[in-house]
Amino acid sequence: MIRPSSGGFSGGPRTRPRISKRSSAKLASSSSEAPILLYDGHCALCNGWVSFLLRVDPKGSLRFAPLAGPTAQARLIGHPELAGIDSVVLIEGPAATARSTAVLRVVRYLGGFWRVGLIGYLIPREIRDSLYDVVAYWRYRVFGRYPACPVPPPATRTRFLP
């Protein structure tokens, strides 16, 4: 089993914060032009994927926020069908996609060779989501879990939202 390293953490585990409606509106409008990928900040696999995206996103067009953070809470208010979701979610303006479709939509922003991954759309969504669910089920057991969201490197911190 691969375990995440213990370095680079800030404090103890984070809990889902409560935010006011005023703060919610401010967070919901921040970086509204840039797509935001919401991810499980405690999941080592998810953090590895975010690190990969930071390296291969040629334009720096993606922003990132942990699912347990106030940005995710504010953005998901308009999507009651996603309440309590434990999956990656891509927010593009007012639209939100989750699971395998969110992963494929992220690939569109990568450009170049990575766009080959778009052939995943040829697989029916029900099958893609079933495969996604298998990986999601095993992610902590195989890749490990961080006790707290890792602090992003200074060079990429501006791409992360609370």
Describe this structure in words.
This protein is an alpha+beta fold. The chain has one domain (21-148): 3-Layer(aba) Sandwich (Glutaredoxin). 36% of the residues lie in helices and 10% in strands. It has five helices and four strands. The protein has helices spanning 21-29, 44-56, 70-76, 99-108, 125-143; strands at 36-39, 63-66, 89-92, 95-98. It has a four-stranded mixed beta sheet with strand order 2-1-3-4, with helices on both faces. A hairpin with a 2-residue loop joins strand 3 and strand 4. Helix 1 (21-29) crosses helix 3 (70-76). Mean pLDDT is 83; it is low at 1-31.
Please supply descriptive tags for the structure shown above.
disordered N terminus; globular; 4 strands; 10% strand; 162 residues; 4-stranded mixed sheet; 5 helices; alpha+beta; Glutaredoxin
